[in-house]
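Session log. Operator J.P. requested a structure for one protein chain; no other inputs attached. Running the standard single-chain path with token output.
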Amino acid sequence: MNPIKMVRNLKTTERDGQTRLYFEPSVLEEAGFDVGELVNISIQQDSVVLVRASDEENSSGVISRRLRQGWDKARPYFDRSNAEISAVLRARERIDIIIRDGHITVRHERTFDLTFSEERFQGEGLQKLRLLSLPSGMGMATAALVNTSLYEAVGAVDMWPIALDVYRSNFRRGISLMSDIKHLHPDYIPQADAVMLSPECDEFSPLGTQKANVATGLAPHYARLIWASNCQAVLIEQVAPYFKSRAYQQLRSLLMASGFSRFYETQICAHEFGSVAGRKRGYAVAFRGDFNFVWPTAPRIPDRFRKTVGQVLGDGWEERGKWHTIKNSPMEKLLAKSGENNNFSADHNYTLVDLESKRISAVISAYRRTQVTSSYLRHPDGKHWRHFTSNELGFGFLNLPDWFEWPDGGYVSETRKVELIGQGVDCNVIAAIGTEMAVSVIGERVRSKKTVNEPAVLQNRSGQLELVF
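Structure written below.
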């Protein structure tokens, strides 16, 4: 049977007293099903299976179409509820949807040991360092690490379908796991050499509740999935307050219990690494074993050599985006916010920047909600302003590789693109840290191999030196 490409974990619903089973466009597209395609749905003892039908006589259904405003084309959709499905799957119970090429299997969610079992059925041997992203978002950190040519993406976990749509548009190999991590069985986790971990941040963001001592209960689930990957290194990225939280302390203690004995922690602002966007984040690198690691050194960039906003935007900046007047608008009120020791003042946050500016505020997921803590472009006439576009934010300010692409079809709107980018990372910083982490892992492997294979030198009876293999 073809290898698993994606796993979707969710809870079934009910319609007219029957269990409702539906497959979203993301799931069907990953399996290779098209709108209007004939399919056969079969009910087995403990699962429901959807496969491509050879002809109309052997089919039991057809893939429907879903078309929404703004989409360039319809996407596949399948929705079914009947007594046969209800006999196997109950309403409001969690299920695993296993996606392969031309084959979708639905079964009850698998329970799991909170440690982990030794048996696996995912993973493949690759020459580069195998990378698991947890959660992956749309894959910005994955792209930054893969772009170093040191890593190969083998898996991603996220519960937001549109984020995995973007991820899968750029990383076709490996497995995608569309699930809340609390319900994800470790057997689905691929074997990896490194894990990119971006824990939850809502409780710790400076723009959120800032509950520094809170424990979210997710640390054991992050830990068990990291254990399941059998990785040697973990790169953790999050807002700085997270690393002072009980949630991080729990994660750290669990990883240490499983052999991650080396932890390196720091804070880095992307602006120090040449980015125009400021983005101060906390970072930790953990190794299973005795690894040597050094944090990348920020380059010394004289102010006169720093990029300007205009240089990042390039030609055509005036034609992109929608311009708004400043006078008698909400922007005018935002600009009026000022005052000493006011973190939410316009002058403190670079709310309006010019083409000559050399710094903007951090890009956040709520960027499109015009607010004082985000940056927007002021027209040289001084009377107009506009939002930066998703491509300007992602490829320009956060340094996404130029090969990264959005899915075809227009269903990822501009607002969604900006939201996804705002949940991402600065690629320059991640690439720099990821390179140092790769050097540590590769160096330790070379040392271990040398220790095992290095020949011994002994003196024979004649007094001559001999190599003993």
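Operator note: Residues 117-126 have pLDDT under 50 and may be disordered.
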